[in-house]
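Quick question, first post here. What does this chain look like in 3D?
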Amino acid sequence: MKAMILAGGLSTRLYPLTKQVPKPLVPVAGVPNAVHLINYLKSYGYDEIAINVHYLADAIVQALGDGSQFGVRLKYLHEETLMGSAGAVKPLQSFFGDETFVVVGCDDLTNVPIDKLVAMHQTKRAVATIGLVVRPRVDQYGVVVLDADGRITGFQEKPAPGTERSKLVNTGIYAFSPEIFDRIPANEFYDFGKQVFPELLEGGKPFYGYDARDAYWCDIGTPDEYRRASDDVVNGLFRMPGTRANGADPSARIDPSAHVDANVWIGANARVGAHARIGGPSVIGDGVVVGDGAVLERAILWAGASIGQGAILRDTIVGMNFRVEDGTELSGAVVANEEVPT
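> Answer (accepted):
Ran it through. Tokens below.
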């Protein structure tokens, strides 16, 4: 079965973290989210997966390879110019052929049951079906309104509190029938949310929403939601198949005098110095160095980061290979190297 991960965007909402790291490689518990998505799709039988790449494309291809390390086959679409979510799917029409296929966004961290979503899609003979989850507050999401049969009757984009017509939000997880390609022009920037879906609604096409209200879903594309996803994983609230939630890699070196909470993830070859204190939920990426006497509380440190002696970090995200100097105090910060690779 075939699926696609939409991964061509620049992830500007996570700047400066993503100035040097393309968004498919943004790590959740030390593992690129694209890898989590590949494992997720594979668990439902999707073993041929397309992925569009644009910004820092070579880094993505180098990290993911041909997919064999994950037990799948990856097909890359190199976009010289970004063509929008639907415009990126159109060139893959022959790849998907005449079967139902699934599209997910590379910002998704989820366990929405794809098998049930696709089963509903096929039972309804839908052109498109959107995976939906419930959010108590929906003013930062695209809201979807359904009738009693699950048919989509309307949308609201980030409605003001109290004006929402539904608590169901669009996860960016879609099932499509081949007919969807008739709705996407070739060689033109085209977007599912802004163009294809409103046109399906206006044309009265069979267009449905799958209510996955009990599923987990997080859009990791903003610092606040990224922190929430990381916290949920290391606290054991969301489990990702094939990866550990917390604990230290056997190659990590932790000084006996250091204190590390149970809900802390520590990566390969990380070093934690004498009398350092790491409070959870926190993530210490591969090769990170935490200096003597440093204090970390609810911190996320990407691979290769270095934290100086006596530094104090609270609710802070530190980007790849970034150096926090001795004695620095940071609270609620996001810091990263900002030079864009050429």
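The chain has two domains: 2-234, 247-335.
DSSP finds seven helices and 29 strands in the chain.
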